[in-house]
Amino acid sequence: MPEGHTIHRLARQHTPLLVGGVVSASSPQGRFAEGAQVLHGRTVVGIEPYGKHLFYGFTGEVLLHVHLGLYGGWTVGSGPPPQPRGALRLRLVAGEHWLDLRGPTACELYTTADRDAVVARLGPDPLRRDADPARAWARIRASRTAVGSLLMDQSVLSGVGNVYRAEVLYRAGLSPFRAGREVPERLWEELWADLRMLMRAGVRAGHIVTTAREDRSRRSGPPRLEDRFYVYRRTGLPCRRCGAEVRTEVMATRNLYWCPGCQPSSRPRAGSSA
Ligand SMILES: [Zn+2]
């Protein structure tokens, strides 16, 4: 699933292609035919990313709400658009450019009130300037839920996904099994600042890198794919810092990765001395 950095990057990429332009909209697949008809001929006034949501504003206070979910994606090009193929939910054409949307979880028309209702349910997005981390902290400090689950809860923090969850907890030296209310405030402040820094870097690069140069197997040049993370998808490999075996287990429906050496667990484990 795309994480917040991908959504913010899409908004940045789509803004110069769409904003200020009149679009022609169609739904070759047919599933968004009526919505496309409403968008057709309107001017795009702005694109707002919020967590994993995208809101495209059109004249007449019409909003297009897009959530890519696990399988959705945009394809962008210029020149004559290709012959529509497959499940093409929405095609927007503006000037030279065409933007094709396939497989989203949500592609629907919204009013401003609909947008506000969605946003009201979202926690602060570390990539937004108006983000208020105190709102997330109020939830975390009062919760018995494991911090590894809380970070994936979009009503606590929005935009954080499975990669950032695992990596930011590792970098904070925090066990994912620690209850939210047992997380020291100082550690939360560090974690928030680290998330902002890592996610901003993700927007710039278009992919996630969390490792410091000295922790990579090759220290010069751009990080190779296998050198980008500390724990994510490194099950069974030695930790870059302490050598302990990286572990995995499902938490909040997704595989969680952590290092038992760098992130010692306070969780009691039946039948285990670990
Ligand atoms: Zn370690």
Tell me the major beta sheet: 4 strands, antiparallel
- Poorly predicted regions are 268-274
Structural class computed from helices and strand pairing: alpha+beta
Give the C-alpha Rg: 21 Å
Describe the fold and architecture:
The protein has 274 residues and is of the alpha+beta class. It has two domains: 4-120, MutM-like, N-terminal (N-terminal domain of MutM-like DNA repair proteins, Alpha-Beta Barrel), CATH 3.20.190.10; 133-258, Helicase, Ruva Protein, domain 3. Helix content is 28%, strand content 20%. The protein has seven helices and ten strands. The protein has helices at residues 4-18, 33-39, 112-120, 133-141, 147-150, 162-172, 185-205, and strands at residues 24-26, 44-50, 53-58, 62-67, 73-78, 88-94, 97-102, 106-110, 247-251, 254-258. Strands 1-6-7-5 form a four-stranded antiparallel β-sheet. The protein is globular. It binds zinc ion (ZN). Zinc ion is lined by residues 239, 241-242, 244, 259, 261-262. Zinc ion (ZN) binds at residues 239, 241-242, 244, 259, 261-262.
List keywords for this structure.
binds zinc ion; Helicase, Ruva Protein, domain 3; 274 residues; globular; 2 domains; alpha+beta; single chain; 4-stranded antiparallel beta sheet; N-terminal domain of MutM-like DNA repair proteins; 7 helices
